[in-house]
């Protein structure tokens, strides 16, 4: 019963009032008693956490935890693109598939997601990958390439769940939820990092210290589980043969390479 209640509380609500209560509670010291329960239910890897479980004073602190220094390696191959997050690979493929139609049940429309035809045109011949962060995942977002932040913009207002129930019954949440988009210009072409908010708390927080980014450098974090969609400009990008839908991936791992880099 407790597991079912906790999953409902942190994953499924799209009601604004309930979402605000969620923020207040998870940020309060009252939520500290749920930290060990949450860690057990979601099987959080405590070996990677920067702090011991007892040091987290609220669920929010646990959600937004950092990793131990050096516990992850960033792929060093110069022409590769790395995963910006720990997450589940929901889908990947050619951008042409998402211009006007849904990807399976993911309901992405390129112009709607990026906000204009002009923005969408940059990526029409490229590739995309969708990465879903569940409550158990590390929630910080990193740069997939070395590059410069070319532009950042915000679209959408309210946010609804982006889990399987939200995707099935929601109104195209990946395309219409509150989202912060960071466009990175690199020697490998433009990369759009679309950070999709989940729940009405619109929990996307930018942390980049400057416009210049190194591969694997922290870019932002989610307060709650959500989704990152990468749009890759160049059609010459080839996905790694060992990535597959519904598989977990860790940030810093290669998701593919640019064949002409």
From TrEMBL:
Pathway: Lipid metabolism; Phospholipid metabolism; phosphatidylethanolamine biosynthesis. InterPro entries: PS_Dcarbxylase, PSD-B. Keywords: Decarboxylase, Lipid biosynthesis, Lipid metabolism, Lyase, Phospholipid biosynthesis, Phospholipid metabolism, Pyruvate, Zymogen. Its cofactor is pyruvate. One of its GO terms (biological process) is phosphatidylethanolamine biosynthetic process. It holds the Pfam family PS_Dcarbxylase. The keyword Lyase applies. It is an enzyme of class 4 (lyase). This is phosphatidylserine decarboxylase. The lineage of its organism: Bacteria, Bacillati, Bacillota, Bacilli, Bacillales.
């Amino acid at each position: 019963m407790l597991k079912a209640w906790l999953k409902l509380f942190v994953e499924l609500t799209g009601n604004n009032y309930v979402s605000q209560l969620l923020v207040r509670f998870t940020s309060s010291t009252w939520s500290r008693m749920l930290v060990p329960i949450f860690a057990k239910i979601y099987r959080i890897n405590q070996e990677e956490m920067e702090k011991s479980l007892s040091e987290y004073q609220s669920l929010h602190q646990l959600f937004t935890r950092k990793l131990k220094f050096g516990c992850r390696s960033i792929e060093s191959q110069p022409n590769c693109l790395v995963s910006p997050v720990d997450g589940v690979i929901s889908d990947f493929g050619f951008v042409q598939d998402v211009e006007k139609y849904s990807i399976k049940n993911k309901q992405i429309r390129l112009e709607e997601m990026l906000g204009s035809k002009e923005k969408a045109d940059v990526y029409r011949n490229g590739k995309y990958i969708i990465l879903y962060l569940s409550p158990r995942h590390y929630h910080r977002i990193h740069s997939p390439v070395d590059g410069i932040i070319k532009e950042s913009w915000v679209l959408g207002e309210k946010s609804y769940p982006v889990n399987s129930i939200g995707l099935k019954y929601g109104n195209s949440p990946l395309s219409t939820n509150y989202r912060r988009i960071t466009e990175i210009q690199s020697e490998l072409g433009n990369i759009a990092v679309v950070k999709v908010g989940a729940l009405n708390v619109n929990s996307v927080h930018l942390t980049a210290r400057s416009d210049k980014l190194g591969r694997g450098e922290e870019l932002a974090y989610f307060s709650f589980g959500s989704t990152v969609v990468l749009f890759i400009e160049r059609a010459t990008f080839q996905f790694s043969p060992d990535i597959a839908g519904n598989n977990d991936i860790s940030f810093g791992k290669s998701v593919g390479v640019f064949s002409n880099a």
